[in-house]
Amino acid sequence: MIELEEAEMLEAQKLRVAYDREAIYELIIENLGEARLTTIQELKKELQDFISEYIGEVTDGRYHKVEVGDDLSLRLFSQEKNEFIVPSGVLSQGTLDQIYLVARFALLKIFSHANHRPFVILDDPFHSFDAKRKERTRVIVEELSKDFQILLLTHSDEYDKWGVVRELT
After folding, report:
1. N or C: which end of the chain has fewer CB within 10 A?
2. Half-sphere exposure of 92 (CA within 13 A, CB side)
3. Residues 53-95: pLDDT tens digits?
4. Among 143, 128, 135, CA closest to 159
5. What is the pTM of this model?
6. How far apart are CA 11 and CA 19, in angstroms?
7. Among residues 109, 58, 150, which one has the least CA distance to residue 163?
């Protein structure tokens, strides 16, 4: 009987430790969630401003304003509809790819404030773009190259006029 009581006490102690750990984990998750929201709130304006600089070029002048959600989703202001719209399902995949390319550069710029001209490697990112979209992207990449060191890796010679060409063998 004593052995059973000791075993029960030991199991009760293990259960208390497990409940304490659960409470600690719940507190950590809650605090991480709050920190995530606070961080996003602090970044939203900067992200919106950066992406808005390029959105007109990306969308061929159809959109000029971006709104970043609390989950980092993007919405574009449609002058035609006089409201913000969710771009997926409305814009082509190529346009979405361009928007998210600019968004990635925006995040990189925000997170690399200490590093002037951070280094970015792009590995054949525009192979699915048509000629007009590639030209608009070239203008954007050229503008971004003022703030970033951009290395574009590709097998195609159509990018030769985008910058200095170095063949890797």
Report:
1. C
2. 11
3. 888 888 888 888 999 998 889 999 988 889 999 988 888 888 8
4. 135
5. 0.71
6. 12
7. 150
